[in-house]
Amino acid sequence: MRISKRIASASPLATTAMHGRVDQMKLNGEEVIDFSIAISHFAAPESVRRDVADMALRQVLPYTAVGGAHGLRARLGEKLLAENGIDASPAEIIVTNGAKQALYEAMYAMTDPGDTIIVFRPYWPAYLATSRLLGLEVVLVDLPDVLARDVLDALPPARLLILNNPHNPTGKVFTRDELDVLEDWLARTGCGAIVDESYEKLLFDRTHHSLSGSAHWRKLGIVTLFSASQSYAMMGWRCGFAVGPAEVVSAMETLQGPITAAPSALTQAACEAAFFSDEPGHLVADYRARRDLLMDMLSPVKWMKVRSPESGPYIWVDVSALGCDTVQFAERLLAEKKVAIMPGDALGMPGFIRMGFISDDIATLRKGIAAIVAFGKQMSESGG
């Protein structure tokens, strides 16, 4: 059977592939600690589970408009105005099966094959995978400590810039001043932007600001993505939405129609319940305590350089002092210690590793981190 060239040259996401390997090992009876991905140990908010259960007992679950039920989009507009400073109409909002679908549709609608897009490194792997599927040219730029004018002015002309705020995997939260500089650059260059704000609620140290909080977001061509997956511990619910200029959202609906149409009525009920649940507080407090525990355990390790994340479910660690191939480091760690991590190579940065810290109980978290530290120490002392 002939497979198309555009998919034959693509590869599964390294992040999901590693998690799949761990699942298979567990099915085979092996005990594995999985830090390669972030799956919350919390359940979805009670209001989400209650509302969806109530709806599931109804006799009829109708189709809705392709972009989501009008009432839901109106409610999400209330959320955007109150929490993000984005004044958007229902026609400028589209409900999707998670942020990945919104990302693909926005990139499809805003670019043509051969266009150049800019992605900061380290990156969420879906940005590059989607770009390749769409035939785009990707310019990778190292994520700066501060997003300043000189950094942006050094960038080549591009159709689109993708920003992850809060950032996965570093945990950086961009300041209002940084976003103002970016807004000015977008206005001067005519480059559009997709801003992934999936971690907007997982804040430890800073206040989150939306780039589309600017009054000029429509003219600038900014699409912002939101997801309930991490902020509300709803990874398996596939619940997300996007806000953008009406003509872009209309184009996204045109693409969504023949692919999936609207998300299920149950997903839409979950979406509304989640974004109005006001429940992430206890979840964030737990994650902050876990982050602090990891910093206490990892900061003294001589072969690690680690910066405390300001947001998110991951910790990003520079292990280049070991002088080893980080893919091989991850493979050996999984084989010998039964601990899974994500090598930075999968996110564009060899010499680093990413570890999710929200999945297991604290005892398992301590055990897994201790195994990584001991393994690295062994490699350091043996010269790799």
Automatic annotation (TrEMBL):
CDD domains: AAT_like (cd00609). The keyword DNA-binding does not apply. It holds the Pfam family Aminotran_1_2. Keywords: Aminotransferase, Pyridoxal phosphate, Transferase. The keyword Transferase applies. InterPro entries: Aminotransferase_I/II_large, AspAT/PAT-like, PyrdxlP-dep_Trfase, PyrdxlP-dep_Trfase_major. It comes from the Bacteria. Its cofactor is pyridoxal 5'-phosphate. Residues 31-366 form the Aminotransferase class I/classII large domain. GO terms for molecular function: transaminase activity. Belongs to the class-I pyridoxal-phosphate-dependent aminotransferase family. PANTHER family: ASPARTATE AMINOTRANSFERASE (PTHR46383). This is Aminotransferase class I/II-fold pyridoxal phosphate-dependent enzyme. It comes from Massilia agrisoli.
